[in-house]
Please model this.
Amino acid sequence: MDQNEYYKDKICIVTGANSGIGYEMSKELLNRGATVYMAGRNPEKVAKAAEQLSAYGDRVHTLVADVTKQEQVQQAVEGTAAAAGRLDMLFNNAGISDIRLFETATFEDWNTVLNANLWSVIYGVTAAVPIMLKQGSGHIVNTGSIGGLIPAALQILYNTSKYAVVGLSESLRMEYSGKGLHFSVVCPSAIATAIYAKVGEALPDDAYPADKAAVDILDGVAELKGIIVVPESWLLMWVGYVIGDKFANIEDSLLQGGRTRRTLYETEGHFV
Model:
């Protein structure tokens, strides 16, 4: 199947759609012929984002929902399926970053990160799976992170949430492989979005453009890939870490990187 054809006339929900990867995925989905329900918790921001895509006419819709609230996610998913007659794709994309030393984290910090990054995905999946099972088809795409595949210092709360999203997504893919449902997890590295500014960090020099990331992600989803690493150049790092590639000294590099990050953060308050 043509990668664009996979999305034609599909009913899609994208959370965290008012900016960053969520916005660019919404735009690219529309480019490929889908109908997109752009979800966000701030009515003004999501309306402004949708207005920027008004050229796509009645294929652009908005949803106001806080993904950390189970009842709001349930209502958004079920309401969309009822209004459109089905739900073909759910992109659980909303989430937050978190940079801090582990020993300074409170349980409130843990709850904030896990609610935004993990429970939001669980709420979305739980709402969508019964609908997709009933209709016999559907594809759920969860946003993880390269930090859900490769560990990094100063991101322990964030990485824990993203490792869980990867495990959840892959396990769901196995459990529903014979039911017409597909699951993918997106694992981006540094992407050029506002997420860095929100945690007081500078944008990394090697940050990948968000619009290119959206293209890569949707290509991978259309190919029914389980884990989608963006950009693909990080695949070698991930595989090397998993197999313990001594020639590339990946683990040593990660350990040294952890020491450098911590030193910078302790002395300068940032690590980028």
